[in-house]
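Researcher: Please translate sequence to structure tokens.
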Amino acid sequence: MVYTVLFDEPHEAAWFKNLHPALKNADEIAISDAKGIAAAAGVLSYDRPDIVLLRDGRPILVVEETVEVPSGHNVGQRFARLAAAAEHRVPCLYFGPYKARKHGGQTQGPRYMNLRLFGALDAMTRVTKTALTTINWPVDAACEVRRDRQKDDDVKEYVGTLLDIPADASIAHLNRQMLESKIHIRMLKERGEFAATVKRAKEYDLPPRSVEIVTQKTFFAGYGVNPAAAGIASAELIVYNVGMKKIRSDPYTGMAILYHYLYIAEHSDRALILWFPNITHRMWVTAAANQRRKAIRLFKHAAEGIMFKDGLIARDAL
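Model: Translation complete:
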């Protein structure tokens, strides 16, 4: 049995290999050098995750780990990586603090996880049947992220559970076993307990201010454009206001995919329209000359159309 760790940063590979004895002598390959590994192409298709674990050449785990303060749009910076794993049926682990202290600025102090991440991950699990597990990075009494070895205890249990599943198990069996595992069920319970402590948690049941759910008629009244005439015939439209002034990916592409799963993936009569109030179609065409550019690829993947400053264009015409 041969394990290979694909990594974005060397220190992440070192951290990951210390989680389980079976990984101690695993081969290491930088993701930037992994383009020739066909089996990993799917999980790398949207963005570069922190870790991809291969067992006998087959991806069995994608890991995202971060100490980033988990508020607002920050969760979107990593969501595309989670989606790529889920859509290719590879179990995925998100390890980050649900609450952590932000230093400096008007919003300094404890910041809380954007609970819409949990809702989107749950929807993605239902749609793809992939095991997506979140583990809370522990913090101390002052909400500072912990750096001691014990912070990894739950991650070690998760990795051990995964590696105990026979190597010849089908991908469906692998995901099912992880979804039914004690560690996954316990992490869901802890996640629910955390969510119960968030003030105004019910607000996360509604779209954020940057997103509205409208009918075709309401969209026409607000934007002066008929979506159906542009080729977008869905009865309800999820309109995400992307306020960027230059075309870029983070965090907007990740949030667009997150909103796709949260509001659209389980609703066949809905479509996502990105509203770019500061971007003209000409600006898009210039940027899209490079179709491999991440922002172009992921915006087109997530949305049925883009409402530019000067008009609505459906995906097929982008």
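Researcher: Any highlights?
Model: Residues 182-195 form the longest helix (14 residues).
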